User: Fold these one by one.
Assistant:
Number 1:
Amino acid sequence: MRTLVLNAGYEPLAVVTFRRALLLVLTGKASIIAEDGEPVVGPNDIFGRPSVILLNRYIKIPYSQDMTVTRRGVLRRDNYECAYCGKTATTVDHVMPRSRGGIDSWENLVACCLRCNNAKGDRTLKQMGWHLRITPRAPRGSHWRIRELERPAPAWSEFLDSNPAA
């Protein structure tokens, strides 16, 4: 059972186990926003199993302008869809091939299916006559740092929809 932790400003901060979330609530550091599943029965009390908690104090997240480019990050940014044909993507492709001076950057990497990746090879889009379906850019927002948000729980949807890039 996972619990979404929201900062005092309602932005996603982390995903923790329900036991850790319950500890944060019991020590007065957080409040339960949403409950899910069977309640937790203790010797003296019965508690709701927290699905989403809100911290009582704002936690300042250090701002880091450069976010490391990863294969998983590119696939997640492009919603696991091929930037060329729209089918399910399983790999990444350099828009400007590395053999022609292309670098590993958010602006040069896109999600791609194997078929399009093999067809493109180390040619440019102009040579292929292809166009990108998306404009590749670095992801924004603190939720990108939370790996568990790739598979969010259904109860979290109303708290994640408020983020435009979620």
Number 2:
Amino acid sequence: MIRSNEQKIWGIHYQTNKPIELTIEDGYITSQKEIEKENSTDYILAPGFVDIQINGYKGYDFNDKPLNLEEWDTVVKELLDVGVTTFYPTIITNSIEELTTIFEKNIEVFEKSQFVNSMIGGFHLEGPYLSPMDGPRGAHNKDYIKTPNWKEFFKLQEIAKGKIKIITLSPEWEESIEFIEKVTNTGVKVAIGHTAANTNQISRAVQAGTVLSTHLGNGAHVTLPRHPNYIWDQLAEDDLWASIISDGHHLPMNVIKVFNKVKQDKMFLVSDSVALAGMKPGDYEAAVGGSVTLTDDGRLHLKDQPNLLAGSAQNLLQGVENLVKSKISTFSNAIDKASVIPGKFMGIKQKDGLKVGAPADILQMDCRKVDWKIIHVWKNGIQRK
């Protein structure tokens, strides 16, 4: 007998390639069993994606101004359409006054909607304690780059009601080590990114509690010494996880292949998408970069300088697809790099994937055609697509 709040979902398990039946109850997976193929579908069942670095999507910029409830509602539905069931809005370098406003106003909105709040894993604060050097600084506004300041961060975290879950900084500042130790002790993940730090500074940052390289290989000088340099240094640190942008533009696929060989199950995908992700190809005016062009193949560059990227314009589903089609990862491992592995890194329940007891954040996917599609999505056991 099926209880009133019980659901059955059928499909091909993304890891075993066998037809299964999942039972969902009260937002969790309560059973999983193999079934005969004729009782299933050809669609693949996989865990929902977890994107820990996303700056905007489908015309909505998380950094331009705080979004209202209707805008956040639209954003989360658009992300569900491409398989993202948990994400961490990434707030980048700005004045402390503007950061305070962004956190304060967004928290007010999240508290008004259980649906929106269920999708938000927390905030990723990228900056303002980054390298001031051209190249590593990337598109971050130099006027607001500054020394790590514990009291300042603590006040921002109070405003955000504890929802800042990860911060990206550069350990090249003298004050970095003490800051990292204090932040880590509060349970916030500390990542290295947009850095020009030397070998010793990176090593000390890891010893102090830093656990991640943010979009490794990007936010760097155009030209680096053969060795040592901060990319090799981060690759060599066994305790550092690595997030990468697999959009086919930010990193050559042979570089991703090397990163994957070194980091293995400590490497996962982020979209790092900007507001123009998901939009039609064409010319746009962007808050960061000004006049930009989005090409048919998803490359976003400065309009008059095609060799300079203006951000990532692809979503996590496309990143998974790129990883598989370039034969860097198996299908199941690529799915894990967008779901289970970032979930494990963040220490959230989504790390259990499709196991019994895991949250029922489930994708039903069609990967038989050139462009992969999400057919249905369940978030906490509720079908949202």
